[in-house]
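Discussion board: Methods & Data

I've been asked by a reviewer to show the raw model output for two of the constructs in my manuscript, not just the figures. I'm not sure how much to include, so I'm pasting the format here to get opinions. Each protein appears as its amino acid sequence followed by a line of discrete structure tokens. Is this the kind of thing reviewers expect to see in a supplement, or should I convert it first? Here is construct A:
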Amino acid sequence: MSAPKEKVGDTVITRELLVSNKVGIHARPAAMFVKIASRYACDIFLEKDGEKINGKSIMGLLMLAAGPGSKLTLQVSGKDAAMAVAEIEDLFQRKFDEE
């Protein structure tokens, strides 16, 4: 089974994100990320060291093992992608409200 292809006209928004909270993406930050991602109709993916996961999967996020200082690539496409990216970037900038 192949991955779904983008519809014509879909733009992929890509951002580099830095995990800057003290303990990285553990259960609480992963749940916060998924809660935001799940509100949007777009496709959201995160990639770290060549491993790409669905951003709406808490297990996928935890399996990335994104500790402090990790660099992640966010890829968002589809309806309301720009709004999703803005909210996710804000979450990372707020350090998942941990500091």
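Construct B, same format:
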Amino acid sequence: MNSVPKALKYSKTHEWVREEEDLITVGITDHAQCMLGDLVYIELPDIEVTLEAGQECAVVESVKAAADIYSPISGEVVEINESLLDNPQLVNEDPYGKGWLFRLRPFENDLAGLLSADAYSKQVASEAH
């Protein structure tokens, strides 16, 4: 079973969200990086770009496939994880730590539409069948 940290919130499209004071850190889940395989390229959003919840905002490419990343909430991009540009494998190695993708300043605290760790685990289990 892939790891699903309880302290995070999750989107149905396999992004995770961590609240840190007034910012939201976004990454892709352990399940998502396992399904993709070894990442070879990541395209991150531009800083100061405004994103709507559900908007395509980044791309991850592996040897197997490319996948779009969607913003789990609306907000302004204030930071990207530049170390991923040279080392996209950090997402494979540490998806909930060093492999984070970007940080948003949310327009409102709109995490209610996101899944709990338990709900996300159930979704992943149902997709596997």
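Answer (T.O., handling editor elsewhere):
This is acceptable in a supplement if you add a one-line summary per construct. For B, something like: The domain at 9-107+114-127 is CATH 2.40.50.100 (OB fold (Dihydrolipoamide Acetyltransferase, E2P)).
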